[in-house]
Amino acid sequence: MTQVYSALQRAYGPQRWWPAETGFEMALGAILTQNTAWSNVEKAVANLKAEGLLEPGPLARAHISKVRSCVRPAGYYRQKAERIRRFARWLISEHQGEVAVLLGLGKEKARAELLSFNGIGPETADSILLYAGGYPAFVIDAYTRRLANRYPLSKERGYAELQSFFQAGLPADSELFNEYHALIVKHAKEHCRARPECGGCPLAKGCESRH
DNA sequence: ACCCAGGTGGCCC
DNA sequence: GGGCCACATGGG
Question: Which helix (H) or strand (E) holds A2?
Answer without folding.
Answer: helix A2-12
